[in-house]
Each structure stands twice: as structure tokens, then as C-alpha cells.
Amino acid sequence: KAGVTQTPRYLIKTRGQQVTLSCSPISGHRSVSWYQQTPGQGLQFLFEYFSETQRNKGNFPGRFSGRQFSNSRSEMNVSTLELGDSALYLCASSPGLADSYNEQFFGPGTRLTVL
Amino acid sequence: DAKTTQPTSMDCAEGRAANLPCNHSTISGNEYVYWYRQIHSQGPQYIIHGLKNNETNEMASLIITEDRKSSTLILPHATLRDTAVYYCIVTGRGSTLGRLYFGRGTQLTVWP
Q1: Contact across the interface for A102 and B32, Cβ inside 8 Å
Q2: What is residue A84's three-state secondary structure?
Q3: Cα distance from B38 to chain A (closest Cα, Å)?
């Protein structure tokens, strides 16, 4: 099975711009979770989508949003970029069913730099 | 989700067993202990999980104390490629699926 893929791998933006990141989960997985990793805050949960619905949400401002498509692919959008949004953005997929475990498979991440 | 406490760093000689401890004294009865690791600049990788029994797979063993307030991840024969940050996470199933709260983890350095 192919693993979780994320595009693009690297991105440079300027303050005030917006950005969209993409994640393709493992075939058959219906849950996609997004995380932000910075040296200061570590790995932080952003949100999780399951069957096109946001099921869990972390503590991030509304500038961070996401969506999931019927094929389980997911996108994450950050509007009005700030310098502090510079981070590694990771997505993870899992079956997501109620009787499954929380074993998540992570992609390689998208490195976002905001100038 | 219950909070976990791990040492900031540990080191281990190559070929020896690496024993990584984790305290989770507020764990509830239906919460599992998960271990993930992150090799520098890569996405985290699932290692193992358990509820109350000891578990073993091809990567590691997980020992959970009888009161479930602490656990130890054991890498039986550490190699240089095991150098990574190891995260101990306590989480349940059901509505909490898809959401993992990572702490700071333990930086394990395996030296030759």
C-alpha cells in the first residue's frame, strides 16, 4: 500500500498571504488528522476529519481550516499568514472507525516558511 | 486524555536494550498507552500500544504496570537508527479517535 503523501513538501510565503496544503491518506483510511510542529510548541493537534466531517478540533484560531473530500483526501488552509505559522505541517491517516485503535500513519510533512 | 511524563533525554549503547519510562498516573480504565517515535525531520511513526497486558511486536515491547500508572517501552537491541524522539501518549477510542496529544517526548540517542 502506498503511504500518506503530502504536497507540496516545501513552501515559502509572505505575511498576509494564504496557503493550501494537501494530504492523500492511505487507501481505505477515512480519517485524516492535521498537526503543526514548531520548535517552541512541539507537535500540536489541529483538527481531524472523518467521512468529510470535522470530528475533532484542537485549539487553533479560525485562520486554520480544513476540509475532506469524498475520496478521503484532505486539504488544510491557513489564511492571513503570520510569521509564527512557520512550521512543519503533518497529516496522518487512520481507519477512523469506532472500534479501531488510534494507530495513525503520518506523512513526511510540508515545511512552510513565512517571510 | 491523561497527561504523561517522560524524561527529556536518555542514551544507550548500540546493541544494548533501551528502556524508556513513562508515567501516566491519571490514566482511566478505558484509555490505552501508545508509543510513537519521530526520527529527525520525518513524520512520527507508530510503534506499539497496550491496555493492561504486556505487548510485543517486531519493533519493541511494552510493559505496563499492574496499576497502569506507568509503562516502559523496551527496544531490545538498540541500533543507531533508533535515535529519535519517543512519545508516550494516553488516549481512548471512540470520539477521541484521530486526535493525539504529543508531549515533549524523550530524545533517545544511541551511541556506537
Answers
A1: yes
A2: helix
A3: 10
Residues of A in contact with B45 (CB under 8 A): 106
Whole-angstrom distance, CA of residue B66 vs CA of residue B52: 7
* DSSP H or E stretch at residue B84: strand B84-91
Query: What residues of chain A score a pLDDT lower than 70?
Result: 1, 98
How far is it, in rounded angstroms, from Cα B16 to Cα B107? 17
Sheet holding B18-23, edge to edge: B18-23, B70-75, B61-64, B55-56
In this prediction, residue A13 carries a pLDDT of: 97
C-alpha cell read off for B45: 511513526
Nearest to A100 by CA among B55, B97, B56, B49: B97
Encoded amino acid at A9, one letter: R
A45:B104 CB<8 A: no
Q: Which residues contact A67 (CB under 8 A, 6 or more apart)?
A: A49, A52, A74, A75, A77
Q: What is the pLDDT of residues B3-13, one digit of tens each?
A: 899 999 999 99
Pairwise CB contact (< 8 Å): B43 & A92: yes
CB A31 within 8 A of CB A48: yes
Q: Which residues contact B110 (CB under 8 A, 6 or more apart)?
A: B11, B12, B13, B14, B18, B78, B79, B80, B81, B82, B83
Q: For position A1, what pLDDT does the model report?
A: 67
